[in-house]
Amino acid sequence: MTDLAARDGRRLDEEWTEVVLLGNSHGQDMVNDPYNGDPDQERQWLATYLYHRFFRLPDGVKLTLLKGTNTLDGNRQFEPIPARLRYFQKCETVEAQDGIRIHFLYDPPYSKESGSGHNQSKKGAIASAVSTAAVIYKDEMYDLQKGRQWTFEAPTFGIPFGAKHISVHIELPADYPVMPEAYRRDLQYLAGEQPQVEASDFADIVREHRPQWLIEVIRSFAPQSSSDDEIRDELQKLLNEQRVRRSSPKVSPEGQSPVATGNGPASDVGRSHTASGGNGEGVRHKPTDLAILPTGAKRADLCKNMDRAPEIMRLREEAEIEEKQLKGRAARYYLDSNFLFVNMRYPAIAEMAVQLEAEYASASDPELMRSRALEIAEAAIIRRVGRTVVFALAKQLNKEWTHKVETASSPESLSMGADDFTYAMPNARRAMGKTFPAKRNTEIPSSMSVLEGA
């Protein structure tokens, strides 16, 4: 190789490697089209691959992408994500248990006026600037998720909205019990059958360590909707009646899981007279329910505690519905994060509202009547979907139930629960009657006849 390099007139005073890309035809451009159109690749595929593969470069290493291999003109120096933090609006690294570090990045829309859909870090980028989630081990990225895959999985990590602009990178310490497989494409656990390491394995840790500013960012992207506290209270009561429980920590000196020592959702903090020698400044914790937060360094054993009603998220925009893959489906439930996304454009809602409108067509204020009918129909379908989730969770208590909870609470199951809204009509009529006490039209027996009449 040295002789060939000298013959080509190349310098011999430093080491280098030459790679030749062999195409499928003489005319194929391997730099811009490595797979000969199957599949098509973006122009900056090489830069994007490097950007999504190496979280950091070794000290003293400088990588230059020549003209034609990046989105900009001319030769450009490659910068990994930590070297480009100046282009992000907000970044924070949080120390978690077992030496794990979580990097949170907020990359707001590039420009509201441009309508391009790009993130702010697109400025000066030579590679893709989409938000990502990944596991980092020894400065390399594994199980990288981006685009629709990331926005779909993000609720599991406690990011129900705004994932298009939020990145989460879970960095494992060098002594973590994992190792790359032979080709370093995947990361594997050392124990047992050495399963593949996935970012979702650390979703609980990510949810627990979200900074407050990130929570505010997520809320800013959430759609405006009416409060569902009343529905959640009803679902919580039903959960308690069904004795639905979920694994959560119970403090024990020999426990295997770390938990926090301060307040949690299971504690009411009050003043104790005896704890501080009579000065009233001591703090006592009074348990109010069976749920506590698994964060911190105190030891605990996992036990079955009362589950909580799902947090309801109403989706109205087509983009939001498409992002959660709910087109043609009523709802999607994320078991780990306890989020319930409801498609407010699902046909059953409109069908129920149309039937109520027909029955109360004689109301003195038709516009108010139609608004109230839609409001009641939406609440009724959310209840139907929510109750289906509760009964799916309750199947965990039945040893003869062979299906997984994820199957029982799948979007398809929730959609069938929403479609059968006939049993919700009596309560809906009573709710309408409180606002419009006039006699309703009883000649329309079902939603089918309403639609046919329309």
Task: Please provide a written account of the structure.
By secondary structure, this protein is an alpha+beta fold. The chain folds into 3 domains: 86-221, Ribosomal Protein S5, domain 2 (2-Layer Sandwich), CATH 3.30.230; 245-306, no CATH class; 311-453, no CATH class. It is built from 13 helices and 17 strands. The protein has a 5-stranded mixed sheet. Strand 8 (178-180) and strand 9 (187-189) form a beta hairpin. Helix 6 (229-242) runs parallel beside helix 9 and helix 8 packs across helix 13 (447-453). The protein is elongated. The N and C termini lie far apart (81 Å). Residues 261-299 and 444-454 have low confidence and may be disordered.
Instruction: Determine the number of helices (DSSP H or I, runs of at least 4 residues).
Output: 13
Query: Could you tell me the mean pLDDT?
Result: 82
Structural class: alpha+beta
Spatial shape:
elongated
Overall number of structural domains: 3
Low-confidence stretches: 261-299, 444-454
Taken as a percent bin, the fraction of beta residues is: 15-25%
Main sheet attributes: strand count, strand direction, barrel closure: 5 strands, mixed
Q: Compute the gyration radius: what is it?
A: 28 Å
